Amino acid sequence: MIDIRSDTVTRPTPTMRKAMAEAEVGDDVYGDDPTINKLEKLSAEILGKEDAVFVPSGTFGNQLALFTWCERGTEVLLDEDCHIIQHEAGGAAIIAGVQTRPIKSENGIPPADSYRERLRRQDLHAPPTSLICLENAHSNGRVVPLPAMEEIRKLCFEWKLPIHLDGARIFNAAAALGCEAKDIAAMADSVMFCLSKGLCAPVGSILAGKRDFIERARYKRKVMGGGMRQAGILAAAGILALQDEHTKGIIEDHRQAKILASELSKIPGIKINPDEVDINLVFFKWPPAADKKAEDRVMEVFKRHNIIINPPGDGNFRFVTHYYIRDDEVKAILTAAREAFGG
Description:
This protein is 44% helix and 15% strand. It is an alpha/beta fold. The model has no long low-confidence stretch (mean pLDDT 96).
């Protein structure tokens, strides 16, 4: 089966499975797991941060950051289409007890003026702003240029506010921008990235920042139930995920996505701008799919070609390339697409 629902569907490589089986482990809650400790140190070094902590998932890492940075009843500014707002089940209200104030962005690029207009200090009627969250690469598949992030950084410096970066796909963003992950991470006070999105690790994410922040986050991680024991079995795969084969190899995922987008644009009825494909996420619109019968037919055609896709939302599809999608798989996907959308 060819699975293009997400880059979270990647399976551990044989090398990862061997490393997991042989991992040296200990009790991580006591700080005794040497493989976890190695992963956290490596992650901090790659991002240019003082310290890092291993967490079960990207959502956990983002919510842990909010829980650590923010006092209850304060306000967080963030893009209305970002992952924290759209795909984390309202966790900010439940866990950190904060009010989220969404701001409209342009293709995921944060408009500094819009953020400035919405910053608030505490008064009788308004909660104070306690944090600004950014996302790079964005969930819509676009990357945020470093100068745009720098503008928000300057604003936060003026207001003495921290920035948290949802960097779930920070290595995709770095590949697209032609920089290092630490160059992007330098624009934020805390950074979360996923080991299980396109990097082939089966489980886990990292939250990184200054040492005192991570110390507080470890306590909050325990509160959230994220203190794990012999988690070095998972960390062993995470260490290999951070090798160049995976982090630098992401550029090949981008190349396949651009080929896919370019060829899809040639199918009559599909609406897509290949120039807007920055990373490995290919979004396109096929209006007939808004009809349930047409949607069912498309899903059936792909299934018949042994390809798994997500159903569309309002006629919008997302195909995701990853470590296991290469030339032959792209050819198979396009063969199915021409039948499904052009038939």
